[in-house]
Amino acid sequence: MAKVLALVDRDARDGSVRRSACALLTLARRLGEPVAVVGGDRPDDDAIKTLARFGATEIWCLADSPAAPAKPATPVTPVTPAVPATPTTPTAPARASDADLLHHLADRLDPAAILIPATYHGQETAARLAVRLDAGIITNAIDVLPGTDGEPVAIQRCLADSYLVESSVVRGVPVITVRPEAAVPEPHQAEPVVHTAAVEPSPIPAPRITATPEPPRDRPPLDRADIVVAGGRGIGSRAAFAVLAEVADELGAAVAGSHTAADLGWVPREACVGLTGKTVHPRLYLACGLSGSVRHRAGMQGAKTVVVIGDDPAAPIFKLADLGVVGDAQTILPALLAEIRARKANDVP
Amino acid sequence: MAVRLIIGAAITLTAFALAGRRVLMLYRLGRSMQPVEPGRADSPGVRLWAVITEVFGQRKLLRWSGPGLAHFAVFWGFVILGATIVEGFGALFDRDFHIPLIGTATWLGFLEDFFICAVLAGLAGFAVIRLRQDPEKAGRTSRFFGSHTTAAWFVLFMIFNVMWTLLLYRGAQINTGNFPFPHGAFASQAAGHVLHGAGKTANDVFETVGVLGSLGVVLSFLVLVVHSKHLHIFLAPFNVAFSRRPRALGPLLPVYSGGQKVDFEDPGEDDKIGRGAIEDFTWKGLLDFATCTECGRCQSQCPAWNTEKPLSPKLLIMSLRDHALAKAPYLLAGSDEAKAALETSAVDVFQEAQRPLVGGADVGGVIDPDVLWSCVTCGACVEQCPVDIEHVDHIVDMRRYQVLIEAEFPREAGTMLRNLEKNGDPWGRGAKARLEWTAGLPFEVRVLGANGEERIPDDVEYLFWVGCAGSLDDNAKKTSRNVAELLHEAGVEFMILGSGETCTGDAARRLGQEFLFHELATQNVETLNAAGAKKVVVTCAHCFNTLANEYPQLGGHYEVVHHTELLARLIKDGRLRPAGEVDVAVTYHDPCYLGRHNRVFDAPRDILGAVPGVKLNEMPRNREKSFCCGAGGARMWMEETIGTRINETRTDEALGTSPDLVTAACPYCIVMLTDGVATRKQQGKADEAVRVADVSEVLLRSVRKPEAADPGSGADPAPGPGAVPAPGAAPDSGAATTP
C-alpha cells in the first residue's frame, strides 16, 4: 500500500500536535498508509502518542533537530507572554525547512499523495514543494477521497462556497493543502516507527517564523459570540458608542455595528453586521439605535433572541424584536450599564 | 519641376511605407483577436445613418457646444481640404494644375478658404480648452488628466502647419499665376497680397517650398496619426458603424466565445469565459481601444472618477490599448518557439506579455482590481463617447473572467451571491417573505395560483413584477403598496407571482456571475412563460432592464413597462386623477437603468407635473447626464471604501435644489439617497424634514381625496392595517370614472 505523507502542524509555543494534523492523518488513511512528517524540533512523547492514536504508521523528523525542550510540569497557563515565544533562535544555523524535508521524503518514499494543512505556512510550503517536485497542486481542499482508480480526489469550495469542485492531480505526486477546520479527526490506534532523515537545507531562502503573537482575548470574536451588542446611526456619536462597548464588556459580548456605523467609523469595518459584513448567530442580539434595514437583517436574522432599543417604534427592527424598548439609546444605554453593574455588585456570592 | 516631383515622390513613398507598415501590423493584430458576436453588421441602413449623424453630423460631439463646434470645424476642414491635397499632388506634375470640372469654381475656392479659416479658429478654440483644462493645474478635475497631452499639442501644431503652408503656397500661386481659383478664395488672396511685395522669384520659391512643405506636413501627419491616439481620424467611422445600435447600454451581451454564444448548460472545454487576457477581446474591442482619442468626456462624467476612485473609463481604455500594442509582437509571433524567443530578443515585449490582465501593482496587472470593481455600470461614459466605445461591456467581460474563472471579487459580495443561490433574493429572506408587503392593503392583491389557476386569467391586464426590493426592502415595499393602490384605483387588473418570483439575476450579472444569472433568469422565464405573461409592470429599474432587454436573450418576450410609464399613461387617459394639492418642492433623480439605459426620462416628470402644487426643481445633472446614486453594477452589494461616497455626492446635488422631497423611481436609488440624506441630517447639513420617496408616493397623495390626503406633511402612511387611508374611491367607481 502506498504511503501518504501528512505534514504535522504543531503549536509554535508548546510543540503540541494541532487538530489539523490528526485530521490530515484521518484523510491520509483513506488513501494509503498515513506517514506523519514533523519538521522543526523533534516531537516529544506526547506528540508521538497523539500521532499514533490517529493512525500514523511512520513518523519522520529531521536528523539534526534537537530534542524538544523539557516541558514544564504544569500545563502552560494561557497568559500572554511578555515576550512572544520564538521557536527558533535567530542566530541558529539554517535548518532544513518543511519543504526540504517533504522534498527529501517524496523522493525517498514515493508517496501516493502529500497532504499539508492550508495555513499560511502550509500554503507556502506546498507551493515550494510542488515546484520542486514538478507536481500538480490543489489548494484549500475541504475533503480528500480516493477516486475510482484509487487516485486522490480533492474537493474544493468555489464561488463564495456555492459550488463544490472535485479535482485530481495528473502530473507528479499530488500536493494537496487541506483547510485545517474541514475534516473531522477519527482515532485509529497504530504503532508508529520514528525515523529520522538527514536533510540538507535548500540554498533557496525560505521565510522563517520569528514570533507568534498571542491574539487579544478581550472580547469574544464576533462570528462566534453568544451575545452581540450592536449599534447603528441612532447611537449618535463615537463617544456614545463607547458606552455601548462598555455594556458589551459587562455582558461578555461582542460589539457590532450596522453598515452605517461602520461607514461613520464608529466600529471597525470587520465589526459590521449585515449583508456585506459579518453574519452572526448569537443567542442574544441587543440592537441599539438601528433601523433594521433588510441588509442589516441579512446578517443577524439567525439570532435566537433579539432585544431592541430604539426611538422609532415603526422601524422594521421592532418587527424582529422579542423585547422592544422605545426610547433614545443614548439615555437608555447608560441606565442599562448602571443597572447591570449594580446587579453584578449585589450578586457577590 | 523635376526637383519638385522627385522630392514629392520621395516624401510620399517614405510616408506610405512607414504608415503602411504600421497599418498592416494593426490589421494583423485585429485579425488575431477573437471574432465578434453575430449581428455587428446587421441593419446596414441604421449603421449608415449612425455614421452620417455621428461622424459627419458630429452629433455626440456637438452636445458640448464649444468643443463640439471647434471639432466640427476641424473635422469638416479635413474633409473639404482633402481637395487641396489633390491639388497639391497635381501641382507636383503640373504647376497650373486644377481639379477637373469643379477645380476652378468660385464656390470650391471659397469653401476651401473658409475651412482653412475655420480650422485655424477651431485650433485656437482647442488651445484655449487645453490651457483652461490643463491637467498640470486642474489635476483630476481636468478631463485630460492622464491623457497624452504633449502628443495632443503636437497634433494641434501639425494641423496648424498644414494650414499655414497651404496659405503660403496658395498665396504664392496667385502671385505666380498658377492658382486655380480666379474668385472666392479670399484667404489665399489675402496671403497673396502680403507675399506680393517679395517679387516674382521669391514667390516661385514660396510656391515650391509651400507645396512640398504642405505635402510633407500632411504626409508626416499621416505617419504620426497611425502611430498615435489620432488613429480615430480613420477608425472612428468604422467604430461607429460596427457599434451596438442604438447604443451599448441596456442589456448586457451574453457570454460569447469565438463568436458563438457559450452554452451554460454544457460549456465547451475551450470556451473562453469573459476576458482574461488582452487577446480574449474581439477585434471590435481592439477597435474600441485604438479609436479612443483620450478626450476624457467619459472621465468627466464618471461617478467613480468624480468621487476620487481610481477608475476612469478613459484611462481603462488607454491601459488596454497600450497593453495590446506593447504585447502585439508577442501576439503576432507565429509559433510558440517564436514567442519564447522573445524572452531574450525583446525583453520588454516578453515581460509585457506576462502581465496579468487584472491584478494589483504587486503583480503588475494591466487593470487594477480596484479599477475594475469601482464601476457602477451607469453608462455615463458610453453615453458621452463621441466614437461609441463600449466601456461597460468591456468592464463586465473582465469581471466575468475574474468571477467565473479566478473566483476573485470583493469578498463582501459573496453573501449576496449565496443568498441568490439559496433563497432567490439578495438578503436571504426566502420566497415566503415575498407577500409581506401586501399585508394591510384595503383590497386583496391577486396572487397567481392562489385559486389554483396555472395561467394568468384573461381579465388580468398586467403581471406586477414586484422584485426582491419591492417585496423585502422597507422603503421599496411602500412603493409596491403605492403602485398597487394606484393600479387598483385606476381599475387596472393586476396579479403578482408571490413566492413564484425570484431575483431577475441583475445583481449577479453586473458582478460578472453570468452562470448564476443564467440559472435565475432561465427559471424566471420558465415561470413567466408558463403563466402566459404578456404585459408586465415593474417598479425596479434594474428588474425593468433585465426583464425587458435581457430575457429576450433567453426566450422571454414580454411587453414590460416601468410603473412610472404606466402611471403617466393612466393619468393621461384620465383613469387616475391627481386632484389633491401636494404642496412640496421636489427634485427628481434619474435612475441610470431607467433613464440612460432605457430612455425613460419623461414619464416620471409627467407624473410630478400632473400633481397640483408640486414644484419640480431639476438638479444640474439630469436626464442623459444624470449622476449615478452609486448602487448600480452590483456596487449595491459592495463596500465603498475608496474616495468620497457617490451617494453623498448625489445627495448634496439634490439638497442643492432645496427640496422637501427627493424623488426617484428605483429602489436602489432610494436606498442610496435615503442613506445620503440621513448622513447629511446627522451632520446638520440637511433639514430634518427632507425625505426621499418614489414618484408614486406623490401621485398617491394627490389621488386620494383631498380630505383624506395630508398635504404638505412629511409623514408617511404608517404600515399596518387601518393606518392606510382608504383610497379616494371604491374600486368600481375608479373604473366608472374612465371616460
Automatic annotation (TrEMBL), chain A:
Q: Where is the Electron transfer flavoprotein alpha/beta-subunit N-terminal domain?
A: 5-213
Q: Which cofactor does it need?
A: FAD
Q: Where is this region: Disordered?
A: 69-94, 202-222
* Superkingdom, taxonomy of origin: Bacteria
Q: What family is this?
A: Belongs to the ETF alpha-subunit/FixB family.
Describe the function of this protein: The electron transfer flavoprotein serves as a specific electron acceptor for other dehydrogenases. It transfers the electrons to the main respiratory chain via ETF-ubiquinone oxidoreductase (ETF dehydrogenase).
Q: How does it assemble?
A: Heterodimer of an alpha and a beta subunit.
Name of the protein described by the UniProt record: Electron transfer flavoprotein subunit alpha/FixB family protein
Organism whose genome encodes this protein? Catenulispora subtropica
TrEMBL record, chain B:
**SUPFAM superfamilies attached here?**
alpha-helical ferredoxin
Looking at the UniProt entry, the stretches that span the membrane are 6-24, 69-93, 105-129, 150-169, 205-226
Q: Which UniProt keywords apply?
A: 4Fe-4S, Iron, Iron-sulfur, Membrane, Metal-binding, Oxidoreductase, Transmembrane, Transmembrane helix
**What are the Low complexity biased-composition ranges?**
725-739
Task: List each coiled-coil range.
Answer: none
Read off the Pfam families from this record: CCG (PF02754), Fer4_9 (PF13187)
Give me the ranges of the annotated region Disordered. Answer: 703-739
Name of this protein: (Fe-S)-binding protein
The organism that produces this protein has a lineage beginning with:
Bacteria, Bacillati, Actinomycetota, Actinomycetes, Catenulisporales
